[in-house]
Amino acid sequence: MNFNLPFPIDLEAQWLKPSELSIADPNISDWLFHTESLTERLVAHTKRFTLQLIGEQSGFAQLHEMALLSDDPQELDPQSWICREVLLLGDNQPWVFARSIIPAELWQDSFNDLHTQPLGQRLFTDPRFQRQPFEVSHLLVPNPIFEKLSLGTDSELWARRSIFLFNQYKMLVCEVFLPDSPIFSPMIEK
After folding, report:
1. Are 31 and 175 contacting, i.e. CB atoms less than 8 angstroms apart?
2. What tens digit of pLDDT does each residue of 58-99 get?
3. Cis ω before 8 (30° cut-off from 0)
4. How are the residues of the chain apportioned to helix, strand and coil, as percentages rounded to the nearest 5?
5. What are the Cα distances from residue 142, in Å, to 13, 77, 94, 147, 154?
């Protein structure tokens, strides 16, 4: 199934350190702070895992994203960064919206051939990528992402983001857990 979505979707969120937010549901907390590959964990919950590429292009990084990744004012040019947005699907249902901001130089060296391969397959098979601590966000209507992803107004979403270090590079990976995601319905992993 192919979902016709605009690119870029973007992501507006108030990001908090885990200690600044109380999460009552242990299943949600477990998914948000799981440090291993999200892709592998999703695969364990589905018979058919697929990735839909929404878009990948320079020029769409937001100022606050670039500033998080670089202190150099010359690197605050959106053309210096690749924005990649994807949907991760389990059994044809969208489970996760992911937005990554990757330095253009690193993209050309390591990621320009990803296409419909999950970014996590590269990040978690190469020990040179080091994940930094998570930040989390609880997204509620009227956040614009609900309309852009055609989600119901009674939905709630949880999101997480972290920076990955690789040599002199930093890249940002944000993941939004969508209403059909296993984060909202405890399941036994295969």
Report:
1. no
2. 999 999 999 999 888 777 889 999 999 999 999 999 999 999
3. yes
4. 25, 30, 40
5. 11, 29, 20, 9, 10
* Alpha-carbon distances of 172 from 11, 27, 82, 109, rounded to whole Å: 12, 24, 11, 17
147 secondary structure, DSSP code: H
pTM, to two decimals:
0.93
Residue 90's SS3 state is strand
Give the tens place of pLDDT for each residue, 43-62. 999 999 999 999 999 999 99
Q: What is the DSSP code (8-state) at residue 131?
A: E
What is the Cβ-side half-sphere exposure of residue 84, based on CA atoms within 13 angstroms? 25
- The DSSP bridge partners found for residue 162 are 173
Structure tokens at 30: 């477990």
Q: Is residue 189 predicted with pLDDT exceeding 60? A: no
Q: How far, in Å, are 24, 25, 82, 181, 185 from residue 85 at the CA level?
A: 29, 28, 10, 17, 24
Neighbours of 9 (CB within 10 A): 20
* Cα distance between residue 35 and residue 55, in whole Å: 25
Distance between CA atoms of 18 and 87, rounded to whole angstroms?
24
